[in-house]
Structure formats: structure tokens, C-alpha cells
Amino acid sequence: MQNLFEPLTNAFRKNGGFLSYDRFYSLIKKHSTITEDEATIAELVIASGYPIKEVKNGYKFKPMHTSYKHQEYVVIDIETNGSKPGRSQVIEIGAVKVKDGKIVDRLESYVFCAYLPQNIVDLTGIQPQDLIGAPSRREALTKLKIFLGDAVFVAHNVEFDYTFLSASFKRFGLGCIGNMRLCTIELAKRTIESEKYGLLGLCDTLNIDMLAHHRAYSDALCSWKIMEQSLKNLPKYIKTTDDLIKFSNSSKKERKRKELQ
After folding, report:
1. What are the beta bridge partners of residue 102?
2. Among 99, 107, 182, 245, fewest CB within 10 Å belongs to which?
3. How far is CA 245 from CA 17, 141, 240, 241, in A?
4. What was the pLDDT predicted at 39?
5. Mean local confidence (pLDDT), 180-207
């Protein structure tokens, strides 16, 4: 189903953030293999975290109708015992939920793991005994999926966390991730002058105190503080959440054209 979200988003953008029922369901049938009835299809898309809302005669794409200042974001970091989700697993989850520019909730959890390589122990400081008695993968991932809702998924190098977690969710029957995503590295590159754009480099540039690098909650919190600073430096034409997401992925040429409009 994940292959569906990009064409669906493009269609919403081309139609002012609204799709009629007929257009919405025809796109789903074209770009996915979902065969359920229409009501179930919509429930599956919404349950994935894809940010739509049913309105009169169709669906609206919430990021195009929500100010980025009032958007709900979940800033996530995960620690894993390897880089490949097919052979590795999440060992720690950290996340902060932000609404109206303020942290309103947090999630922090170890995840049970039977095998922790020494290089991961050295990198994170997490010890094998820390994971004994921790929530199972299914339990921890379910809690994260609920916590995420349909908020914008934010991470430093979002591709890794998003892809790893989506594969992990699928593995445990939790579906895929349909949330819009935002990378704080890419956003920082467009709003902050820094010699380095890794988490440590940006924390040094911005004088952000890091409690413990390569620990999930600490890294998630630092990622939010970087994002918070980035939001202060946005150009004036950024109004909606969708504007912000497109800006974070934009080229210099695209940004220049927007500024001249």
C-alpha cells in the first residue's frame, strides 16, 4: 500500500487539497492491490497515518489546510542492533509529540532483544541486561504506532527511521506507515548555516546540550530543538504543513522562484 501514498499526495496537491470520493477510490484501485469495499479502504488508509479527513463529497488532505505552526509532529529516534530491518531490530525508541510549537507528550522505551552486538553496546552504551524484561517488539511498536497517529513523522535522517520502522510494523501485522515525513537534516540545510549537519554538528552550532548521543530519547529531543530553530528561519511564503514539507525537499532554484513570486 505504501506505493499508493505518493500518487495520492500528488493528486491532492493538484486539486487544492480535495479529492472527490470517485477520484479518491479510482486512484487507490489504480495504484494498489487493495480489494476491500470502499469504506474499509478509507479506514486502512487513515489507519496507516495518512493525513486525510472525510468532508462533504470526498476527502481533504489535512497538511494543505493546516498551518505548520499548529501542526502535530512526532519527532522520533530509534536505536537498533543493526542497519537492515530484515536481519535487525529496534532496541530503543524515543519520541516527542509537538503541537502548537510545544512538546505535549513523550515516549521512551527499551525493546526486548536477545542479541546485542558489542559494537552497538560501545556505540549506544545500552547493555544487554537493560533489555531483559523490556516490552516485546510487538508491544513497543504498537505503542509507537498509536503515539504517532497521523502526525508528521520527523527524524534526523528520516529515511532510515521511517524505512526501518515501516518494515518493522509490517513484520508484526501493524500495516505500513502513511504519515507525511520531514527530515531535520534537509530542513536545517535550508535554514541554518553550519559546517556540519549531523546531529552533533548542529547541536554544537546551536549550543544545544545533548544528554547522551545515540540514545533514542536524547536524540529525538535534540532533533526537535534543531527543528524548532529551523522553523524560526523559514521564508515568509511558508504557510501550511505541506508548504513546509515541500520546502524541506526543494532545490535552490525552486526556493528562489518562490521568493520572487
Report:
1. 99
2. 99
3. 14, 25, 9, 6
4. 80
5. 97
